[in-house]
Each structure stands twice: as structure tokens, then as C-alpha cells.
Amino acid sequence: MPKPHDLPALLADIHREASDLFGQGRVASYIPALAEVNPHQFGIAIATIDGQTHSVGDAHTPFSLQSITKLFTFVLALKLEGDALWQRVGREPSGAAFNSIVQLETENGVPRNPFINAGALVITDILTTRYAHLDYALLGALRRLADEPGLHWNPRVARSERDTAHRNMAMAYFMKSHGNFRNEPEAVLDNYCRQCATEMSCAQLAQATLFLANNGRDLSRSGQPDEQFLGPDETRRVNALLLTCGAYDAAGDFAYRIGLPVKTGVGGGIVAVVPEVGTVAVWAPELDAKGNSVLGAFALERLVAATGWGHTSF
Ligand code: GLN
To answer: Measured in angstroms, how far is the CA atom of residue 52 from the centroid of ligand 1?
Structure first.
């Protein structure tokens, strides 16, 4: 690990270099509210398990987490269901776009993994059965993990996604026809769109995911007791799934370039876990063709090259 005092200078360098890439990607527009975001924003935040935090650029600006929430809903479902979860969703990379429908038909309505849309919809279905108010349950967990009581979901973004969620709705009905959906698709889609509209800054996201770098133990900054949020074995498994499935059909490319468990979202955020070290959250809204942040991926690639993070973890 580089000396703590080197990290701010490194982040400043990476931020400057990455800024040359503005204009190479495109902001997501299939959810109309996301298209209104100023594309020229870019933040990086690091949180380490020994209590350091470093940030640069727009690291304190809240953004739409979108698919990054799939990581948190998956963890909640795993805590509740344990291995029974795997009867309803797989754990293989899909090699297909995050919103692809094609595999669902040949694979009898069982999605490949919990991080593509179909798999995340099954997870949200599971949580819809468990919680009368899933949005409160999820926000409660996130507020505690991030030590941020003010976290919320954006009703305008949720509405915008809900009004245009035809493809996700089609997948939900298809899975229902295969008996892999317990609740009404409309109710699950309401929850799913609220979940995706959750907003956090890079600094908050790095803090909220720190338990994944710390064998499942959440380190509180606000005076609350630390909590074993997830068991060490489950944490290792979540990280394995993030490495293999966290970047949709670019998971192999991300593993090659970055080599860390990651979760990406079409809001332009990416969070990366460096086991036993800390977490890195990056955000820049312009996306590549696979729906991943152009500047974000570049920044993570540069960071691991400079620090050696991840080279000894796997
Ligand atoms: N809410 C988005 C969707 O369902 C999330 C996709 C993403 O971030 N990749 O399409």
C-alpha cells in the first residue's frame, strides 16, 4: 500500500489525467431523468479499514446509484435466505447486456446472477415478500452502513424509470410465468425503481461498502458499536460474485484491467473493493457502450496500477 500521504497526490494526478476522457462516453438516456445530469462531473473517494478517507473532485455530490443498489439488495437477501437463494438465481457471469432477456427463455426463467436486471428483479421480489416497506428497510441499512441518516431515494428518478420500465416489466412477467416470481410484477417494479433511484456520493458509497473489505464487519464512525454486518465466508463469496459478474458483460475486461470486485451502475458510479485494505468509489456519468463509466474505469485501472491493490488479494 502506498504511504497515506501519497494517496492525495496520486488521486489528484489520476483526476487530472482522467478528465481528458470527458466526451468519450454518453450519459444514460433510456431513463429520461438520468439524461439531465451534467456529464462533466467526476469524483473519487477512498475509505480504508484503518480509518483514512481521501477524495478528489465531485466526491461529495450525490448521484443515482442505479445498479450499484443490486449489491446491497443482494446482501440483504443473502442474510435473510442464505443458500436457499440459489434456487432462484444463478451465480455465473451472463456475458450479455445487463438488461438482456435472451437467456431467460432457454434457462427457464432463472437469471444467471443477482447483478443483471433479471437477477436483481428476483432479489427484489424476495425482499418484497420479506418487507412491507422495502424502501425503508434498504435505506435503513444504507444509512447505518454509510453513517448518513439523510440518505434518500429520488422520487423523480424513480418515477421516470417506472414510466419507462417496459423491458424490466417484460422480464418480471416472464419469470412469473416460470414460477420464479412470488409477488405481482407491478409491486416489485415499484420497489425496484425506488431502489435504483437511491442517491449517494462517492464518499458515502465508499464508507457504505467498507464492510466488504473488512471480512463483513461494518466500522461505525458515528459512535454506534461496530457490527458484523455479514459473515466472513459470505463476504468472500459476495466479493467473488462482484469480480465475476459486477460489470455485466464487461466483467472479464474489468477483471483484466482492474482485478478487483466491482459494482457498476448506469448513473456512472463504480465501487471497487480492495479486500483487507478498503474501498474506492468513483463517479462520472458518461458511459461506454456496455453501460460502465468511462472515466471511472480508467481511474480504477490507474489506481490499481499505481498502488498494487488487488495483486495479492486473489
Ligand atoms: N435501473 C436501471 C435498469 O434497471 C439499472 C441498470 C444499471 O445501472 N445497469 O435498467
So the answer is: 31
